[in-house]
C-alpha cells in the first residue's frame, strides 16, 4: 500500500494568513493526488483533484501543487469558514489511500 | 444535483454482518463515466477506502477487508450496497458512500459524498 503522510497534523492560524499543508507519498503517485476539506460532523468535500485542478465552486484561494511524492495544499488568505480538517488521497495504485488529516484551527 | 444517502442499522453485534445501502438520486447509477464507492472513518480517525463498484457489477476491494466484504449494485433501484461480515469493535465507524470520478490522466476522486451513517459494533 502507498502510505500518505500529512504535515503538520494540526495547525493554528489566523484569518488572513497564508497556510500550506504538505502531503508526502511513500512512493510516486504521479499526479493522482486529491484534497478534501471536512468540517466537524460533515462528510468530506472535494477541493482539488489531479494535484492542481480546482473543483467547481471551490474558492480560488485554494490551490494545489506538486508531483511524484510531494504535494502541497495552499490557502492564500484564510477565511473563517476554512477552519476544518484537510485530507489528501492518492489513487495511483490500489488500495486508494488517504493521509491521516491535518486539523486547521483558529489561533 | 446528484445526492447520495446511506441507510442501514446503526448498531450491529460482534461477529454479525453489517449491511448498508446507498441510494443515488438526481442522476443515474448506470454511467460509464463514474463508479461508486464506500469509505469509512472510525471516530476521531482518518479515512479508509473500503471498495468500489461499477454499474456493471465489477468490483474493487481494499485487500485489508477483501475477505469480509461484498459490494453489489441494483440499477433498477439506483442503489448500491455494502456487506461486511464478522464485524468487531474495530469496524465501528462512520460509513460514507460516494460517486467516484475517473480520469485517465488524473486518477480517481470522490464527489459528492453521502452524509455518512455511524455504525457501532457492540453487544
Provide structural commentary.
The complex is a heterodimer of chains A (107) and B (123). With 107 residues, chain A is mostly beta strands. In chain A, 0% of the residues lie in helices and 50% in strands. In chain A, strands 2, 4, 5, 6, 9, 10 and 11 form a seven-stranded mixed β-sheet that branches. With 123 residues, chain B is mainly beta. Chain B has no helices and eleven strands. In chain B, strands 2, 4, 5, 6, 9, 10 and 11 form a seven-stranded mixed β-sheet that branches. A four-stranded antiparallel β-sheet of chain B has the order 1-3-8-7, with no helix packed on it. Chain B starts with a strand and ends with a strand. Chains A and B meet through strand 4, strand 5, strand 9 and strand 10 of A and strand 9 and strand 10 of B.
What Rg of chain B do the Cα atoms give? 14 Å
Strand content of chain B: over 45%
Number of helices of chain B: 0
Straight-line distance between termini of chain A: 36 Å
Helicity level of chain A, as a percent range? under 10%
- The span between the termini of chain B is 39 Å
Q: Using DSSP, what is the number of strands of chain A?
A: 11
Q: Indicate the mean pLDDT of chain A.
A: 97
Overall structural class of chain A, as computed from helix and strand content, comes to: mainly beta
- SS elements, strand count of chain B: 11
SSE arrangement:
The complex is a heterodimer of chains A (107) and B (123).
Chain A: E1 4-7, E2 10-13, E3 19-25, E4 33-38, E5 45-49, E6 53-54, E7 62-67, E8 70-75, E9 85-90, E10 97-98, E11 102-106
Parallel strand pairs in A: 2-11
Antiparallel strand pairs in A: 1-3, 3-8, 4-5, 4-9, 5-6, 7-8, 9-10, 9-11
Chain B: E1 3-7, E2 11-12, E3 18-25, E4 34-41, E5 48-53, E6 59-61, E7 69-74, E8 79-84, E9 93-103, E10 107-113, E11 117-121
Parallel strand pairs in B: 2-11
Antiparallel strand pairs in B: 1-3, 3-8, 4-5, 4-9, 5-6, 7-8, 9-10, 9-11
